């Protein structure tokens, strides 16, 4: 049986992104829940969320290349989750602004 030794590379490419994913998820959820409960997104900037999604999409492509080249999935998981959560907030902004009109 082969034991996998934790190297600095595997720590930086697998463990750190997973920790980032946990903190990222914790950061998004209070906002998503608040938006859902209050349906008030009037102070949220739609251009910010659109540009953020474009940026995260580009980072996801980069993370996919890292996955293909090095076989490390940490950044890819982080960016996919980040993208999904940002799209969720943008969807809330669009839907709840339409309902206010």
TrEMBL record:
Keywords: Membrane, Transmembrane, Transmembrane helix. Pfam families: PQ-loop. InterPro entries: PQ-loop_rpt. This is PQ-loop repeat-containing protein. GO terms for cellular component: membrane. It is a multi-pass membrane protein. The chain crosses the membrane at residues 12-29, 49-68, 74-96. It comes from Paenibacillus agilis. The keyword Transmembrane applies. It comes from the Bacteria. It is found in: Membrane.
């Amino acid at each position: 049986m082969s034991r996998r030794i934790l190297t600095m590379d595997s720590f930086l490419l697998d463990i750190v992104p997973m920790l980032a994913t946990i903190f990222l998820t914790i950061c998004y959820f209070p906002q998503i829940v608040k938006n859902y409960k209050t349906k008030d997104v009037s102070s949220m900037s739609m251009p910010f969320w659109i540009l953020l999604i474009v940026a995260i999409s580009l980072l996801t492509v980069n993370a996919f290349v890292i996955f293909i080249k090095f076989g490390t999935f940490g950044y890819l998981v982080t960016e996919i989750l980040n993208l999904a959560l940002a799209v969720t907030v943008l969807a809330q902004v669009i839907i709840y602004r339409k309902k206010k009109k």
